[in-house]
C-alpha cells in the first residue's frame, strides 16, 4: 500500500513546552492506523498539526506526497483529510438530518462549520449515511436530544459526508456506553472496507485499538516510543512501562 500520510520530524512547541518532539510516522492508504500513549503525550496536538489547526515549528506533513504543512484547515479538508474531536462538534438545536448538511470547516476558526442546503445527491447521501450508522429513524429529532454515543455516531456520519480519503478520529469510543462500542467498531471497519476510507485513530481503550488497527504507534513525552503491529506494540516492554503497565 502506498503512503497516504507521511509525518516527518514534526515538532510543536507551546512556549517552553514541547508537545511533539521530532515525531515521524506514516499511514498507508486503505489501512486503519492507531495512535496510543499516556495523557499528555502529544496525540491530539499531532492530529491538530496534521489538519492545519496550528503551525508546526519544524518538520513536514506530507499528504499524498505533497507538503501540506502551510495549508489552512479548509484547504486540507478539501483535499480529503479531516478529523473528529474528543468532544462532539454538532449543532444540538438543529435536527439530525440538518447536521448532515454541514459543509467544510470554517477557514478562520477551524471549528464551526459552514452551513448550506444540500442538493438531491447530498440529501440522498445524508440519508444513506444515517442508515449506515443506525440513526435514520432519528433523523428528524434535535441532535442535542441524542445520547452521547449517538452524537458520536452522528459526528462520524457528518465526517463521512465530505467523502474523506483519510479520517482522523480522536477517541471515538470515549464516553460511549460499553454496549454500543462493538457496534461502533463494526461501523469503523465497514467504513474502511466498504467506503474506502483510511482511518487514523487515537484510542485509550486498548481492547478496541488492538482489535481495530492494522498498525499502532505509541507516543510518550511527545516522542515516538514504538511502532508496529498490535502484537508487537502490546509486547514491547517500553510500551508496557510507559502506558499499558500504568493502566
Automatic annotation (TrEMBL):
The keyword Membrane does not apply. Residues 5-246 form the ABC transporter domain. Keywords: ATP-binding, Nucleotide-binding, Transport. The keyword Cell inner membrane does not apply. CDD domains: ABC_Mj1267_LivG_branched. GO terms for molecular function: ATP binding; ATP hydrolysis activity. Pfam families: ABC_tran, BCA_ABC_TP_C. Transmembrane segments: none annotated. GO terms for cellular component: plasma membrane. Belongs to the ABC transporter superfamily. This is ABC transporter-like protein. It comes from Tepidicaulis marinus. The lineage of its organism: Bacteria, Pseudomonadati, Pseudomonadota, Alphaproteobacteria, Hyphomicrobiales.
Amino acid at each position: 500500500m502506498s503512503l497516504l500520510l507521511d509525518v516527518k520530524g514534526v515538532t510543536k512547541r507551546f512556549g517552553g513546552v514541547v508537545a511533539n518532539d521530532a515525531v515521524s510516522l506514516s499511514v498507508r492508504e486503505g489501512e486503519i492506523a492507531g495512535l496510543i500513549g499516556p495523557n499528555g503525550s502529544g496525540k491530539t496536538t499531532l492530529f491538530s498539526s496534521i489538519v492545519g489547526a496550528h503551525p508546526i515549528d519544524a518538520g513536514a506533513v506530507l499528504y499524498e506526497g505533497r507538503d501540506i504543512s502551510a495549508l489552512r484547515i479548509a484547504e486540507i479538508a478539501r483535499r480529503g483529510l479531516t478529523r473528529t474531536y474528543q468532544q462532539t462538534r454538532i449543532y444540538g438545536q438543529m435536527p439530525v438530518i440538518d447536521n448532515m448538511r454541514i459543509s467544510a470547516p470554517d477557514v478562520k476558526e477551524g471549528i464551526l462549520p459552514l452551513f448550506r442546503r444540500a442538493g438531491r445527491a447530498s440529501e440522498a447521501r445524508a440519508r444513506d449515511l444515517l442508515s449506515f450508522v443506525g440513526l435514520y429513524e432519528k433523523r428528524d429529532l434535535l441532535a442535542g436530544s441524542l445520547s452521547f454515543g449517538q452524537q458520536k455516531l452522528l459526528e462520524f456520519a457528518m465526517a463521512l459526508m465530505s467523502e474523506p480519503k483519510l479520517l482522523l478520529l480522536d477517541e471515538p469510543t470515549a464516553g460511549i456506553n460499553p454496549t454500543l462500542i462493538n457496534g461502533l467498531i463494526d461501523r469503523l471497519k465497514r467504513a474502511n472496507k466498504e467506503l474506502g476510507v483510511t482511518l487514523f485513530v487515537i484510542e485509550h481503550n486498548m481492547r478496541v485499538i488492538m482489535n481495530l488497527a492494522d498498525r499502532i504507534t505509541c507516543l510518550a513525552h511527545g516522542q515516538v516510543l514504538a511502532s508496529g503491529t498490535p502484537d508487537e506494540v502490546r509486547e514491547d516492554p517500553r510500551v508496557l512501562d510507559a502506558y499499558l503497565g500504568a493502566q
